[in-house]
Amino acid sequence: MRGSLDDDGPSWCPLLTADHRSFWCASSAGVARRTYGTPPTVNGQYLPCQSTAMASSPLMTGIGFLRRWRRLRVRRTSDKRIEGLRSDLDCLGYAWWPLPLTVRTAIRQISGTSMGALLHMEAVGLGISTLLTYLYWGSVEGSNEVSARVFSKLVAWTLLLVVIAGSTREAYVVANRYRLVMQCAETIKACAEAHRAGGEYRTVRLHAFSVSLRRLERGLLRAYRMRGTVPHFSPRRAELRRHAGQVVSRLRAAESQLDGSRPGCALEELAGLIITITENYAAGHVGALLPSASLMDIQPIRDRELLRVGGTVTLIAGAAVAVSLLGIPSVTAAVVISAVGVLGLLVFFGSQWHRYLPIAEFFKPGP
C-alpha cells in the first residue's frame, strides 16, 4: 500500500531506517496502521507522521497526567508504608532484619490495587442488592408492576456494574492476595506503639494491640484461601487449616506473656513471630508460616467463622418468618429484619460486623 502526498491523505514516517521496509502510516483521523513498502519523500526528506498530533490532544494529555499522578501517589504511599514498617522493626529490636523484596513488592502491589479492589466490592454489592430488589418486585408485587422503562434501566445499570466489576477484578484478586501482609504490618505498628508507650498509656496501647492481633488471627485462618495457591476442594487444605490453627495458637501463647512482669520482651517475641509470618506468606509458603520446631506439641484452634455465619443467617431468617406470621407492614418489616441482622452481626462478629453486611442484604424484604 502506497501513501498519497495530499494533505488529506495518509502521512508516513520510518520505523527504523530507510533500509527497513517497515514503517507506520497514520491517517488524518489519527488511526495508525502497519504497512510495508517504500515511504514517500519530498526533496529527499521523509514526510512527517501525523500521529503525534493525536498524542498532544487535550484528552490524551489529561489522561497521561492522571496516570502519572496516580503512579506518583502509589509510589509515595508504598514508600511511606515501607519506611514505617522499617521504623517499627527498629524500635522492636529487629534492626538487623532486612525487609525482603517479596514483602516490599507485596506492599507496593496492595498500594496500587486498593482503589480498584474497593470499586470491585462496591460494584458486586450493588449488583447483588439490585438483583434482589427487582426479584422481589417481580415475585411479590407482581410482574405487571415492573414497566419496560424500569426494566431497561435495570439492564443498563446491571451492565454498568458488570463492566466495573470485570475491569477491577484483577485488582481485587491482587489486593486480597496481599491483604495479610498489610494486616501484619498494622499489627507490628500497634506492637511498636505499645512498646514505646509507658505508664497508663501502655495499657491503652496493649488493648489496641490485642484488637489488632485478633484481626490478624482471622486473616491467618484464611491465609491459604487468600493467597490463591491451593485450588478449591484440594486435599491439601486440611493440612493448611491445621497449620494455620497452630500458628494462631502459638501467637496466643506468646500473647499470654503480656500479663507477666516483662511485657516488653513479650512484645518483641510477638513481633519476631509476626515478621516471620509476613516473610513466609509473601514468599508463598502458606504451609510453613512458622518453623515446625516452634509449633511442636501445639494444638491448633478451630476456625468458627462458618458457624458464626450460620448463626447469623438463622437469626435473620427467623426474624423474617416471625415478621410474616405477625402480618407486619412491609416498610416496618424491612426495618425490623435489618435491625435484627445488624444486631446478629454485632453479637457474632464484634467490631468486624460491617464486613459481613452482605449477609443481611440477602434477606432484605423490599427496596
In short:
By secondary structure, the protein is mainly alpha-helical. Helix content is 66%, strand content 5%. It folds into four domains: 11-55, no CATH class; 58-177, no CATH class; 179-295; 305-361.
User: What is the spatial order of strands in the main beta sheet?
Assistant: 1-2-3
What is the string of helix and strand elements?
EEEEEHHHHHHHHHHHHH
Query: In this structure, how is the largest beta sheet organized?
Result: 3 strands, antiparallel
Radius of gyration: 29 Å
Strand content: under 5%
Structural class: mainly alpha
Which parts are unreliable, with pLDDT below 50 for 5 consecutive residues or more? 1-36, 50-55
Description:
The protein starts with 10 loop residues before the first strand and ends in a 6-residue tail after the last helix. By secondary structure, it is mostly helical. The protein has a three-stranded antiparallel beta sheet with strand order 1-2-3, with no helix packed on it. Strands 4-5 form a two-stranded antiparallel ribbon. Helix content is 66%, strand content 5%.
